[in-house]
Design a protein that fits this description.
Elements lengths: L2 H7 L3 E6 L8 H12 L5 E4 L8 H14 L3 E7 L5 H13 L4 E5 L14 H11 L3 E6 L10 H13 L4 E4 L5 H13 L6 E5 L5 H11 L5 H10 L3 H21 L4 E5 L4 H9 L2 H7 L1
Parallel strand pairs: 1-2, 1-8, 2-3, 3-4, 4-5, 5-6, 6-7, 7-8
Helix pairs in contact: 2-3, 4-5, 9-10, 10-11
The structure holds flavin-adenine dinucleotide (FAD).
Length: 287
């Protein structure tokens, strides 16, 4: 099913993000993780794409498994920065052949492998639209993209990207809901009125935090910093505290009628289970 239909049919969608295996040997483990997650009945599952192209075949294979074997709508990520126009057409033909109807169109980050054919995700979105018949989503950044001069400029480029043919947006991770609410207000003021699904990254171990914050540019609010400081020495306590924090973030988002929750699962079904276990009635109130 196309994801814009899912947004039309549900007041709030629930989606899980997984990443495909880098090596073929790990394929069964990722399949098993997606199988467990599908039991939680998300509206769709998204599968990331290696900007260097290393996991591109596995993206299609896992997305296809999710869609056809697990009967869950799949969203395949696709990056363009290291691809030629011809390679993108081949990717699109491959996705179509695999029955994938939804693409998250991204620029990617690959300073060594820039092809020169694509500079921004908006160019990929135009090519997907010209290819035809995909539902296209794009990324957005509540705190501004790390390479943007300002959030205002990033928002204007986001509006240009949306106008190229985007049906929904998925946010970068954020840890302070007020950051998202301010972003949504500013986006609405410049005419971005698409469904925006909120990217939630549960903090489940101390090692993850520094890397995540560096990659995403997301700010850790003082309350989360205190939690990490206080419980970092006990992995079990930090896991529980991280899940509790994600639950409180999601609860507030649902109470404020967000259009979608997108869980960055890091391929851990237990994380998704622990979060949804505490929110099942709340979620069933919002669909
Ligand atoms: P763009 O929308 O092209 O924006 C990139 C930068 O260029 C921004 O600073 C923007 O303000 C600026 N810009 C845009 N248009 C113009 C213009 N016309 N003129 C001047 N400046 C412009 N990466 C992966 O490799 N694989 C994945 O699977 C993946 N999944 C992701 C999923 C989500 C939800 C998110 C938020 C990110 C994901 N990323 C992934 C990371 C993403 O590739 C990077 O954040 C990348 O740096 C930007 O991608 P984009 O599509 O947002 O780029």
């Amino acid at each position: 099913m196309k994801i814009n239909t899912l947004f039309n049919q549900n007041a709030c969608t629930l989606s899980f993000e997984v990443f495909p295996p880098k090596a073929s040997g790990a394929f069964a483990a990722v399949q098993a993780a997606t199988q467990e997650m599908a039991k939680l009945a998300p509206h769709y599952m998204s599968v990331t794409y290696g900007a260097g192209g290393g996991t591109s075949e596995n993206t299609v294979a896992i997305a296809s498994y999710v869609q056809h074997e697990l009967k869950t709508t799949a969203l395949a990520h696709l990056t363009c920065v290291s691809s030629t126009r011809e390679q993108v057409r081949e990717q699109l033909a491959g996705l179509k052949k695999a029955g994938i109807e939804n693409i998250l169109a991204l620029r990617g980050d690959n300073p060594e492998g820039v092809s020169g054919h694509y500079k921004y995700a908006s160019e990929l979105i135009q090519d997907i639209a010209a290819f035809g018949d995909f539902c296209v989503g794009a990324a957005c950044y509540p705190e501004g993209h790390t390479q943007s001069a300002s959030q205002e400029q990033d928002l204007l480029y986001l509006k240009k990207k949306v106008d190229c043919g985007v049906s929904f947006l998925c946010t970068q991770m954020f840890f302070d809901n007020n950051v998202l609410y301010r972003f949504l207000y500013k986006a609405m003021k410049i005419g971005i009125d698409l469904p925006v699904t909120a990217g939630i990254m549960p903090i489940t171990n101390a090692g993850q935090i520094k890397r995540m914050v560096e990659l995403s540019g997301a700010t850790l609010p003082p309350v989360l910093l205190s939690i990490v400081d206080r419980f970092a020495s006990s992995p079990a306590a930090l896991y529980q505290a991280g899940i509790a924090y994600a639950i409180s973030q999601i609860l507030d988002l649902l109470a404020n009628d967000i259009r979608g929750i997108h869980l960055y699962t890091m391929n851990k079904p237990q994380v998704a289970r622990d979060i949804l276990g505490s929110l099942s009635e709340v979620f069933s109130c919002t669909v």
